[in-house]
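This section describes the prediction task in plain terms. A model, or a person checking by hand, is given the sequence of a single protein chain and must write out its three-dimensional structure as a string of tokens. No templates, partner chains or ligands are provided. The sample shown here is typical of the held-out split.
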Amino acid sequence: MTSIQQIKQAAAAQCGFTVADIESERRTRALVRARQMAMFVSKRLTPKSLPQIGRAFGGRDHTTVLHAVRKIDAELSRDPALAAEVEIIIATALTSITPETEQRLDHLAELLVDRIVERLAEIREHPVAERLPEEKDRDAMISAALDVVLCDRALDSAVYQRGEKAARERLDRSVKRLRVHVEGRA
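The expected answer:
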């Protein structure tokens, strides 16, 4: 799930400010606009209440957040540049990951590689081991199989709900790639 911190970082980067600026008391026109966009996106992408969002933006009142959400929402249909900026902030926030999440993903990848190595050792001892492809082909097949699993999980992920068509297309390509490797050995 996307956090308010990730949204503030995305808005700050898009508008040329720092997160500290977004949280500050300063009220220059450009900064207020960036802050309002970040509040709007926070309300759309997180389950946080208006008071919780306000606290995350330097202790602002919930009515300030409500004003920002309503203002940006009203202007989106009239201002294509604003709509584009908001979409960029959303895309950036959805695709960013925290350092903690990155560490967890690295750890999971290591565990997955260890499990694959263990499974390959078991397979080599199996009576049908002589039917295994050469090591280079086997690595490509494993890569294709992992890609299918990852694509399938991505399709189920809430992050990809908006991009379901693209996720399905990627899954189809991965399945075809795996079939080529499997049918190539038969």
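For orientation: Residues 99-125 form the longest helix (27 residues).
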